[in-house]
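B., you asked whether I could sanity-check this one before it goes into the benchmark set. Here's the sequence:
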Amino acid sequence: MFADDTSLIRTLSNPYADIQIANADLPVKQISKWAKQRRVTLNAHKTVYMIFTNKVEKTERCPRIIFNGNMIEKVSNHTHLGITLNETL
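And here's what the prediction gave me:
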């Protein structure tokens, strides 16, 4: 069994500070647990994340997200189902 493209959106008031929440037991470990229970394989090497913001000033500090022991790459733009998204929308 396999699935094609999947997206996950999470709203954070301050993504650079709240990224620790994203790496905590919720929601990253919950996603991993959900996938294992349903025998769904999620390829961490094909997984990326973006931070959408309308703030003019961006920090150079890049938060790290770890999924199943793999660091997820942060990107500035991503094409999903033919639509290209960027950090400022």
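One thing to flag: The chain has a mean pLDDT of 75. Otherwise nothing jumped out at me.
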